[in-house]
Predict the structure.
Amino acid sequence: MGAVQKLATVVIIGLVALATVLVVYLADEPNRRSSETGEQDAVAIERGTDLYITYCLQCHGPSGLGSMGAAYGEKPARVGGILNQAYLTPDQLAQANAVFQSDDPVKQSVAEDWLRFRIIYGIPAEPNKTTKVMPAFGNDLNVEEVNDLVYLIMHGNWNYVYNTTVKDTGKAVADTQCLQDPSGEYCGHTDEAPPAYPTPPPPAGASSESAASPAATDQGASSSGLSIEAQDVAFSTDALTAKPGDTITMNNVGALEHDFVVDELGIKEVAAGGETVTITIPEDAAPGEYTFYCSVPGHKEAGMVGTLTIEG
């Protein structure tokens, strides 16, 4: 009986210990779930920020202020709606289609549906409308990416978005400089380059000669001496003059992809962030004025358009 009693005691103690561990585990379940949810939310905001910089920055600006950003010194002026509603007055919020940053579950539900619809279908939403105020990204983004963007707009920190934007822009500027001068200060570790605000355009009416910065001229100017910068989101000039056979160097100093398009001359040259491309004017180009623009969705509408004059 003594051996049996000892075995029974051991079993009972083991069961009690197991039950204690189970109770402690279950009691900590809310904290564990909260920690996992917090990590997932942080990842969603990080992914959403990367998507925002790629697809939304050009129209809504680095702080999400859109067309209102100019009132706070943001340049160039943006054409997008106001996503960062912290700066809106109560009257302006009352007139908004949806309240993005709210603790009200009903308003959150409305905002989530409204944002998802606009991201997928654009403005106007009708698929037969070829001219869009806001591009439709339903074919460019999958469901998870749309969800990340929606979560960022509703729950993200716009200071984080802004800081990430200027850091990425600084890296892109350093990458461009290092392509031309590998001995630069940050070459080999451009991720440590100082932040840079997305470059604003020059004053309206500036010529290509006065608008082009020294860096743009030094970084691969063409044989005919013509150059232009593609910035986020603007060209460094809205006027170029060339002759048939001339070449134009386009330096993309921004973080976004841009292109240089002249429909009538069959010109389309694409440059990723930090890249430089050469545009050749066809030898048979007729004298006259032509429109050049960036065909990336939303960029032309944001002001990336100008006049190319071909001289005889």
Observations:
- The CA atoms of residues 159 and 191 lie 19 Å apart.
- Residues 199-223 have pLDDT under 50 and may be disordered.
- The first helix runs from residue 2 to 27.
- The first strand starts at residue 226 and ends at 231.
